[in-house]
């Protein structure tokens, strides 16, 4: 069994939707590491990962506010049927839930990632409703809120704008509010997979010094405990010890020198 990887951080953050960005996209790209990677020198995205048939595209713009742009199209050259955008404050672990579902859909070969959107607004946020998130209406919108009030969903029932569903977390502000938006044609099961990640109780690791003070004040932080050394870790320390420089003493002797033998009498003439 491979050894567990050390946590990339010194604190665990709970709930995970308040962890903010780690500064890398590793957790978001983890489910699709086997897909083609395209490193670009020009354009808004530094990296684009595509499905082998190029119908699913995952763009990473590490320096922009809209850091992630994920879309799917009927073929490699057609316009995207739907798009999901995650901003620079969004934990990559939440994006990873969406990319994991996309990888599964593509592997199954049934084009679920191009399914028609559900006519029921509840289909995409069922994991949140099952988790007890409160809901209320306002002028053609449905709003859901987490029990702690630090995360929510806004759903445009009248579809007056391109952004149909917006999942958010954290205090309002440029460096604290995480947002993931889905356009109107997004399949409900992809929205649900992303929403499910908001209810995952497992914490995520972050470096305390890089965590927003506003997020840290709302989240629960637990120090990361270094893993205990295994026998394999200890063995090199034992074998690499320098031998003692003190002279060895036989078990049957003492450290007290023995008395000198008596002097022999002088020879007579």
Automatic annotation (TrEMBL):
<feature type="region of interest" description="Disordered">
    <location>
        <begin position="221"/>
        <end position="269"/>
    </location>
</feature>
<protein>
    <recommendedName>
        <fullName>DUF317 domain-containing protein</fullName>
    </recommendedName>
</protein>
<feature type="compositionally biased region" description="Pro residues">
    <location>
        <begin position="258"/>
        <end position="269"/>
    </location>
</feature>
<feature type="domain" description="DUF317">
    <location>
        <begin position="50"/>
        <end position="104"/>
    </location>
</feature>
<feature type="domain" description="DUF317">
    <location>
        <begin position="146"/>
        <end position="204"/>
    </location>
</feature>
<dbReference type="InterPro" id="IPR005523">
    <property type="entry name" value="DUF317_SPDY"/>
</dbReference>
<dbReference type="Pfam" id="PF03771">
    <property type="entry name" value="SPDY"/>
</dbReference>
């Amino acid at each position: 069994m491979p050894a567990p990887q050390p946590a990339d951080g010194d604190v665990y953050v709970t709930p995970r939707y308040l962890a903010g960005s780690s500064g890398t996209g590793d957790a978001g790209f983890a489910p699709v590491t086997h897909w083609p990677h395209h490193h670009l020198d020009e354009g808004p995205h530094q990296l684009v990962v595509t499905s082998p048939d190029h119908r699913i595209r995952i763009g990473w713009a590490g320096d922009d506010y809209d850091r992630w742009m994920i879309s799917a199209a009927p073929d490699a050259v057609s316009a995207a049927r739907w798009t999901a955008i995650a901003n620079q404050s969004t934990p990559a672990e939440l994006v990873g839930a969406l990319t994991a579902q996309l990888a599964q859909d593509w592997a199954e070969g049934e084009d679920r990632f191009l399914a028609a959107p559900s006519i029921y607004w509840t289909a995409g946020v069922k994991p949140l409703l099952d988790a007890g998130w409160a809901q209320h209406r306002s002028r053609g919108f449905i709003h859901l809120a987490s029990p702690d009030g630090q995360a929510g969903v806004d759903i445009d029932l009248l579809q007056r704008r391109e952004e149909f569903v917006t999942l958010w977390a954290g205090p309002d502000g440029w460096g604290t509010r995480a947002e993931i938006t889905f356009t109107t044609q997004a399949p409900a099961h992809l929205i649900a997979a992303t929403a499910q990640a908001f209810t995952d109780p497992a914490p995520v690791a972050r470096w305390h010094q890089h965590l927003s003070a506003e997020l840290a004040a709302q989240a629960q932080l637990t120090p990361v405990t270094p893993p205990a050394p295994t026998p394999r870790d200890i063995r090199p320390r034992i074998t690499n010890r320098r031998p003692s420089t003190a002279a060895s003493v036989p078990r049957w002797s003492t450290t007290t020198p023995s008395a000198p033998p008596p002097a022999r009498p002088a020879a007579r003439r």
